[in-house]
Design goal:
The protein has two domains: 249 residues, P-loop containing nucleotide triphosphate hydrolases (Rossmann fold); 67 residues, no CATH class. The protein has 13 helices and twelve strands. An eight-stranded mixed β-sheet has the order 6-7-8-3-9-10-12-11, with helices on both faces. The protein has a four-stranded antiparallel β-sheet with strand order 2-1-4-5, with helices on one face. A hairpin with a 2-residue loop joins strand 11 and strand 12. Helix 3 packs across helix 4 and helix 3 runs parallel beside helix 6.
């Protein structure tokens, strides 16, 4: 499965599989994940908890921990400065991957307190990213840190440099984390559920901020979420992930108007929409639960929950992929669905 866009690709992920080594066994956590993101684009990676979204994001920066490792596939980064590398071939440590993390690729997380040290000032932690990756002095690093804090909307950015994370509100900490992720001008920003812990008003402000910075800096964004409302607001394209596989990809318009995979349709039917009270549209939760990736079902991993599964084919065979370009669906019904 591959995707193409009209923009030069910043990241091209091809057939990425991640495995967990347990004793003498190797368990597939993701299978043949493929997607690409162009410069200035936002790709939303969507699915229920446990679908493999976050582990995929960590693999892009070689941050997999413990017994997790990339077992096959490519992660080709082509940065705005012309630098290119297959991250899947790099180790977790060393100069090559360190030249990418924080400089050409940045990451923001759901809970900023987990990524900031409580015993160092915000300014020191942002400036450190600059001094590690660029040959600049502390004064220049501090100046650039204040500049980024101002850009993300933190009042009195110079004074904020000398404050500690606990002195910031949740929304301000999230803005500071965005500043740290962007201070070296990365080509790709990975945003892993960055607004889940925030209230609706602050969430909207953060999303608007990311959209604005994306346009200003021309970077690509991988936005990981389970919230389809955020997808509609933020994304250009969508990749739907289920139990370690991407089952459908398309533009936001295509996915919302003509979902083709049964799982995508189920996700959309489980989400309330504006006007539901008046229209009396029924909200249908998805039956069953996400399978255990350590003991996944055979065949199509969605078949135990799928209302249109065809047995024994769906329960025994991995489904084919239909479509071309950026519109793909992995399902035995896919060809007919895409032709609708």
């Amino acid at each position: 499965m591959s995707m193409s866009t009209d923009h030069p690709h910043v990241i091209d992920v091809s057939n990425l599989s991640i495995s967990l080594k347990n004793d003498n066994n190797s368990i597939a956590i993701t299978r043949d994940v493929s997607f690409s993101i162009g410069r200035g684009e936002v790709l939303a990676l969507v699915g229920e908890s446990g679908s493999g979204k976050s582990v995929t994001a960590l693999a892009l920066m070689q941050l997999l921990g413990g017994n997790l490792s990339i077992s096959s596939g490519q992660i080709v980064l082509t940065a705005i400065d012309g630098y290119s590398a297959d991250i899947a071939k790099l180790g977790r440590n060393g100069r090559q991957i360190e030249a990418i993390r924080g400089a050409r690729m940045g990451m923001i997380f759901q809970e900023p307190m987990s990524s900031f040290s409580p015993v160092h000032t915000i300014g020191a932690q942002i400036a450190e990213v600059v001094t590690v990756h660029e040959d600049v002095g502390r004064k220049e690093a501090r100046r650039r840190s204040a500049e980024l804090l101002a850009k993300v909307g933190i009042p009195d950015p110079v004074g904020a440099l000398d404050r500690y994370p606990y002195e910031f509100s949740g929304g301000m900490r999230q803005r500071a984390m965005i500043a740290r992720a962007l201070v070296c001008g990365p080509s790709l920003l990975i945003a892993d559920e960055p607004t889940t812990a925030l209230d609706v008003t602050i969430q909207g402000q953060i999303l608007d901020l990311l959209s604005k910075l994306k346009d200003e800096l021309g970077m690509a964004i991988l936005f990981i979420t389970h919230d389809l409302g955020i997808v509609a607001q933020m994304a250009d394209r969508v990749a739907i992930m289920y139990a370690g596989s991407i089952v459908e990809t398309g533009s936001v318009r295509e996915i919302f108007r003509r979902p083709s995979h049964p799982y995508t349709r189920a996700l959309l039917e489980a989400v309330p929409r504006l006007g539901d009270i008046d229209e009396r549209r029924r909200i249908n939760p998805i039956a069953g639960s996400m399978p255990n990736l350590f003991e996944p079902p055979s065949g199509c991993r969605f078949h135990p929950r799928c209302p249109v599964a065809v047995h024994p084919r769906c329960s025994l065979e991995r489904p084919p992929t239909f479509g071309s370009g950026g519109r793909l669906v992995e399902c035995i019904h896919g060809e007919a669905e895409l032709a609708r």
